[in-house]
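Quick start: read one record
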Amino acid sequence: MLHGALFESSSQADTVVIAITGIHGNFYSNPFYYNIGETLSANGIDFIYAQTRNAFGQMNIINTQTGEKEQIGSWNEDFAKTDDDIGAYLDFAQSRGYRQIILAGHSFIGREQGGLLSFSPSR
């Protein structure tokens, strides 16, 4: 199950912006999305702030050189599954009848969105 936050306008919106967090980003640690969601929904555009299944893909290890604890992460991002996650958010938006779906992202995820769309002409 994917987690996301939906900001709905007071009237039926034709447009939704789906913003995906960056690699290992999640909306629990990025509260700035409230400003974006409230601004868009106040102007008749729905907003979904979404994260992929890799949002918490970090792990604690012991550094073999120093013996110190470290947290590592981005090396294990599974981009094939990220495509599926973005596809699920697109499917959700289509099921709600939006006529215009705008994808947004930051960090490396913007590149991933472009890859998905270039290989999925039906989207």
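The CA atoms of residues 17 and 102 lie 5 Å apart.
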